[in-house]
Amino acid sequence: MKTLVQPKEGDYSAFFSNYLKLVSGNNYEEQLQNQVNELLKLFKEKGKDWAETAYAEGKWTPKEVLGHVIDTERIMTFRALCFARGEKSSLPGFDQDPYVLNARFGQAPIEYLLEDFQAQRKALLTMIRILPEDSLDLVGRASGNPITPRALFWIIPGHFTHHLNIFKERY
Fold first, then answer.
1. Phi, psi of 66, rounded to the nearest 5 degrees
2. Are 23 and 31 in contact (CB under 8 A)?
3. pLDDT, tens only, 71-105
4. Distances (CA, A) of 68 to 30, 75, 99
5. Domains, the chain, with CATH or none
6. Is residue 149 a contact partner of residue 84, using CB atoms and an 8 Å limit?
7. pLDDT digits (tens, 9 = 90+) for 35-51
8. Which residues, in sequence order, are bridge partners of residue 141?
9. Known Gene3D superfamilies for this protein (predicted)?
10. Residues sharing a CB contact under 8 Å with residue 46, sequence separation 6 or more, in sequence order
11. pLDDT band, residue 4 (cuts 50/70/90)
């Protein structure tokens, strides 16, 4: 895989800075695979009851968090594809709460969600491999803010790490 260097400031809105601070280095593919392995290990160690239990009233279960991560990665990947292809229209934001509510992740077997997560990661990596290098820095607009495909790709592992840290701290 080509080296996917991290985005520079200005390639994304300040909102995403906290996610991007959670990733380092430029071995993108290795980071994504390490995250898959860590997630699979965590869910295997914790078991099915853990995956279905929120840490507090009104909070998502680990299954719902995983579903949210998958949805977010799909949306970020779609946005990156659009902008890499030269899309000029602004793409809308999304409200994560109705997405999780309407998805009913709690009804899905955890094995399906874990398989879906792995499939999303594989699709992401194969897409990046075939994108022209210069398309990674084309600027599009999402949620009213300018952003590049490169930034969107790096937000994905940062967003994952954010939620993994919450799993470790609160669940």
1. -60, -45
2. yes
3. 999 999 999 999 999 999 999 999 999 999 999 99
4. 22, 10, 8
5. 14-170 (1.20.120.450)
6. yes
7. 999 999 999 999 889 99
8. 146
9. dinb family like domain
10. 62, 171
11. very high
> Per the structure block, which two tokens stand in for 43?
């869910």
User: Using CB atoms within 10 A of its CB, is residue 89 exposed (0-12), middle (13-18) or buried (19+)?
Assistant: exposed
Q: Are 147 and 14 in contact (CB under 8 A)?
A: no
Mean pLDDT over all residues of the chain? 96
- HEC string of the chain equals CCCCCCCCCCCCCHHHHHHHCCCCCCCHHHHHHHHHHHHHHHHHHHCHHHHCCCCCCCCCCHHHHHHHHHHHHHHHHHHHHHHHCCCCCCECCCCHHHHHHHHCHHHCCHHHHHHHHHHHHHHHHHHHHHCCHHHHHCCEEECCEEECHHHHHHHHHHHHHHHHHHHHHHC
Angle at CA of residue 34, ends 15 and 134, nearest 5°: 55
Grade residue 121 by pLDDT with cuts at 50, 70 and 90.
Answer: very high
Residue 1 pLDDT level (bands cut at 50, 70, 90): low
